Amino acid sequence: TFIDPIDSLDLQARDSPCPNSYESHNGLNFTMYCNQNNPWNDAQGPVQTDTMEICMELCSRYWGPTGEGCFGVVWNTGNSCWLRNSSTSTQGLYPEAGTHSALVPHAELKSVNTDCPFDNLSIQTVRNVENFTIHCDQVIGGFDACFDEYDVSGCYQGPYEGFWHADSLQECMEICADSHPLCQGVSWNPSQTIGFANCWPKTGWNNLQPATANMLIGVLHSAALTSIEPVNTTCPADKSYDTQGKTFSINCAQLNTGTNITSIHRANITACVDACAKSDKDCVGVVFDSTMAAGFQNCYLQNTTSVISSNANTTFALLSGTPLPTSNPTNTTVPTSSSKASSKAWIAGPVIGGVVAIGLIAGGIFWWRRRKARPVSGTTATGYKGAPGYGYSYAPAP
């Protein structure tokens, strides 16, 4: 079987098997060498992918067992994909029709300052309301998940399960704050020893371990979410709210599964509605999740409506005069982008559920909708193991 194609790339890839240039969804740049082979120096291979773009996406997310990431790929029109290690270079290139190579400039995988950027056990505030405790030279074992934002290039298992790249621990914590479901910690690898995908959001953090025990993972620093400013969970008694010259109906314990424009954090339903009223994106309603179970960005601005359902943990507000459909909703689509900056969050109705209490929580939250990890042809789902002392698990998501 083949690895699942990335839908947004499929059509363009078939028109151009070897693109002129490529930047992966998490920001890794490739230099292209079309109709040229670059043999040897395997990091892993081969696996089967429908397109060269998917092959490069795997490279951008690869964490190898030898303590380095992926530095290039070779892909042919027979759909075979090879990943290259740090020894690869242009010296071995030779012409071969139907075989295409791509190399990652070494500067893309260069280590930044590996010193812990904050004092150990200091508290750092993100988005003005999330407090993270810094754990220098520590790594959070386990608690990995297929976060909704990964859908921009797919959720995979094995050595491709990571996604995000961050140039700083601060940026990694901000990625955590934007993640759905709720992210409760991060581990960040400034040396990029584990590959370009060096920022790992976590759904919990009570498995902190020393990160210096094994050189294959290099230097890691972690941050654990230890408190969030309280959110108002009370639904207003007045079911009509006027703001910015617009009137919205407030519907307690209800959910609209319409299309989301974006998600932001707000402390109460009226502040969430205010954001919709000020939006220039044709916002007609919001879903407000006071539990934040689905993510810190708990105010979902929507530009379409769908069938309304009951949900004890959410409040739905609708702009007056907006029609409601009478038929069953279609699946909500998620926009895609090849830009690393597109770290917007999206939510569908089934995501929200349960009650979450943040304070000094260390455990994971597991009642959200989870996507099944995608196997890759040519590898085994459980054939890759985390470096000793890290405790990372490559077990497929249910």
Q: Over the alpha carbons, how many angstroms does the gyration radius reach?
A: 22 Å
Sheet with most strands: strand arrangement? 1-2-8-5-6-4
CATH classification class of the largest domain: Alpha Beta
Overall, the morphology is globular
Number of domains: 3
CATH architecture field of the largest domain? 3-Layer(bba) Sandwich
Query: Residue ranges: pLDDT <50 for 5 or more in a row?
Result: 4-15, 327-398
Which class of secondary structure composition applies to the elements? Answer: mainly beta
Distance between the termini: 19 Å
Major β-sheet, in short? 6 strands, antiparallel
Write down the CATH topology of the largest domain. Hepatocyte Growth Factor
- Helix and strand run: HEEEEHEEEEEEEHEEEEEEEHEEE
Return the average pLDDT rounded to an integer: 80
Superfamily (CATH H level) name of the largest domain? Hepatocyte Growth Factor
| Count of β-strands | 21
Organism: Lophium mytilinum
Domain Apple: 45-83, 159-200, 261-302
InterPro entries: Pan_app
Transmembrane segments: 345-368
Describe, in short, the structure shown:
The protein is mainly beta and 398 residues long. The protein has helices spanning 7-15, 52-61, 169-177, 269-278, and strands spanning 22-23, 29-33, 36-37, 42-48, 72-76, 80-84, 94-95, 99-103, 123-126, 130-135, 138-140, 185-188, 199-202, 208-210, 221-228, 240-243, 246-256, 260-264, 285-289, 299-302, 308-319.
What report would you give on this structure?
It comes from Lophium mytilinum. It holds the Pfam family PAN_4. The protein is globular, with a radius of gyration of 22 Å. The chain is mainly beta and 398 residues long. The C terminus is likely disordered. A hairpin with a 3-residue loop joins β5 and β6. It folds into three domains: 101 residues, Hepatocyte Growth Factor (3-Layer(bba) Sandwich), CATH 3.50.4; 106 residues, Hepatocyte Growth Factor; 112 residues, Hepatocyte Growth Factor (3-Layer(bba) Sandwich). The strands form five sheets. A six-stranded antiparallel beta sheet has the order 1-2-8-5-6-4, with helices on one face. A six-stranded antiparallel beta sheet has the order 16-17-21-19-20-18, covered by helices on one side.
